[in-house]
């Protein structure tokens, strides 16, 4: 069944309310409700029941459960290590003993660098870079909004720039399904032509080193500085009794074990090819290994009793429940807009204004709108490429340029949409509100999108 313009209503409601009310729970829930009411021809009771079915569908997907377990257990591991003093020991190691990080700029830059190094999975990149570096960034008064922006920008975009993972395989398969010959070669050629992706990743270190911020992001940065002054003046800035400082190895060794086991897991699940491995499942194995190492070290050094360590792990795990709820609703809404055919409707609505030289920029805009509306970069690629590629073959438009435009548009939504799973994960790792994250970074992502659009117009006439 085709739902026409009604297919975009749930997304408009969810995104609009999330940004205006800052209540992401209610916004996503209302989006789910309206979407199900549309599907069930206006039946309100069926719409309510549809919400339950949407949640059941999310939990029926094993990969979703794996992601949720990994996120919640990662939260438990970090809190366990923090209460045992490993986080403070790590901060002391980086800032005092080695002076590796001496300023806010160096803390931000290392965060960006870690995000790039972990390029095999977008969510894994955000979780590792955000969680490990958050205490250091907090020490140098980096706002949660700025931290979320950094780790989010180098998650999915870097996976597309360094496609040595399931991202590369997927991009090639979408090109092949769109009738492109020599898809692997086209994919490689399209990477430097993915203007939004390249600029978004490159602009972060430039902003870090120059200290340039504007709009809501600048206000967030100034807010943190002011809050720090008030905390110092009121005396609540002093370290609490439960905030111990022990060896940095209490953080380094569990994290190293987590990364090593993740890599081994990807090798095993990929049947000897790490690039074909199950990223989040392997990451879950890694987190469990990290927790085990942390427990052994804590008990061996008698930093905490087994009961205290278990309580800290549980507290951190439960503390991630709000994020899991948001992720559940976001994934449910993503499935719903797929059922409604939101992506197909928007793609067809724009298809009549395509022309040879402007085809790349129009494809970019179509992908941008669809990905923002659906929160899915992969879904956007699967919808837009088969639509525009036949036109490109007929019109003589550059295939790599067009592919790069679609990758770019898809990644814009992945980074900018409040219903994207990578948005939820980036916010969970940095303890940043989703509405605050979207509101503060949108001037940046929109600016990069405008620059990219201009480039696609210019290069579209040249190539």
Descriptive key words:
globular, 78% helix, mainly alpha, 23 helices, 0% strand, 463 residues
Structure description:
With 463 residues, the chain is mainly alpha-helical. The protein is built from 23 helices and no strands. The longest helix has 29 residues, at 434-462. The mean pLDDT is 85.
Question: What's the short version?
Answer:
Helix content is 78%, strand content 0%. The chain has 23 helices and no strands.
Strand content: under 5%
Shape: globular
Mean pLDDT: 85
Major sheet = none
Number of strands: 0
The number of helical segments is 23
Q: Helix fraction? A: over 70%
SSE series: HHHHHHHHHHHHHHHHHHHHHHH
Q: Report the end-to-end length measured between terminal Cα atoms.
A: 40 Å
Low-confidence stretches: none
Rg over C-alpha atoms, rounded to the nearest angstrom? 22 Å
Question: What is the SS-derived class?
Answer: mainly alpha
SSE topology sketch:
Layout: H1 9-21, H2 24-39, H3 44-60, H4 62-83, H5 86-97, H6 104-117, H7 122-139, H8 144-153, H9 156-161, H10 166-177, H11 183-190, H12 195-210, H13 216-234, H14 249-269, H15 279-300, H16 306-319, H17 321-340, H18 342-350, H19 359-374, H20 377-395, H21 399-416, H22 421-430, H23 434-462
Helix pairs in contact: 1-2, 1-23, 2-3, 2-17, 3-17, 4-15, 4-16, 4-17, 5-7, 5-14, 6-7, 6-12, 7-8, 7-22, 8-22, 8-23, 10-11, 10-20, 11-21, 12-23, 13-23, 14-15, 17-22, 18-19, 18-20, 19-20, 19-21, 19-23, 20-21, 21-23
